Structures are given as structure tokens and as C-alpha cells.
Amino acid sequence: MHYRPLIGVPGIELRTHGTTLYNSIYRIDDQMLVNAHVWGVNAYGAPVWHLRQNEGSRMFGTYAESFDAVWETAQPVREGSE
């Protein structure tokens, strides 16, 4: 619902999945925002990490691998889809 205005915008792809996750990951090239899900805390009140891909750092790579694995199973959202 919140991302519906982005459907069809060039350069943006939205997908949905049924995987249980413990983070929301928003990835843009070599940067990402990771919003940790915390029991009893709304997403806006939970920590958000801004990660950048750096040589030698595994934190970005770990989240990127997780993101890519889920992304491959996710279905693209198209205009008119519910």
C-alpha cells in the first residue's frame, strides 16, 4: 500500500515474498538500510543501520547475501496487482 506510487517508476523494482524475516532491508547499489525488527517495538522505533560496501567488511556482504537469496524467490509487483 505505501509503496504503490513507486510501481512502474523507472529504476525501481518492487517484489513480495513469503519468507519470515527479522529485518527489513532496503538496498540501493552499494548501500543499504537495515531496519531491525524488535519484539514490541514499531518499525519506526527500531534501530536502522546504514551500511556501505567496504573492502574487507563482511557486515554488508552478509546482509547482501541474505537480501539476494530472498529476492530470487520473490515475485515482482505489477500495476493492478493486489
Would you write up a description of this structure?
- The structure is a single chain.
- The chain is α+β, with helices and mostly antiparallel strands and 82 residues long.
- 20% of the residues lie in helices and 26% in strands.
- The chain is built from one helix and five strands; from the N terminus they run ββββαβ.
- It has one helix at residues 58-73; strands at residues 15-16, 23-28, 31-36, 48-52, 75-76.
- It has a three-stranded antiparallel beta sheet, covered by helices on one side.
- Strand 2 (23-28) and strand 3 (31-36) form a beta hairpin.
- The longest helix has 16 residues, at 58-73.
- The protein is globular and about 40 Å long.
- The mean pLDDT is 89.
Key structural traits:
82 residues; alpha+beta; three-stranded antiparallel sheet; two-stranded antiparallel ribbon; 1 helix; globular
Low-confidence stretches: none
Protein structure class: alpha+beta
Count of alpha and pi helical runs: 1
Q: Element order, helices and strands? A: EEEEHE
Global Rg: 14 Å
Describe the global form.
Answer: globular
Kindly report how far apart the N and C termini lie.
Answer: 9 Å
- How many beta-strand elements? 5
Give the strand content.
25-35%
- Across the major sheet, the strand order is 2-3-4
Percent in helix: 10-25%
Indicate the mean pLDDT: 89
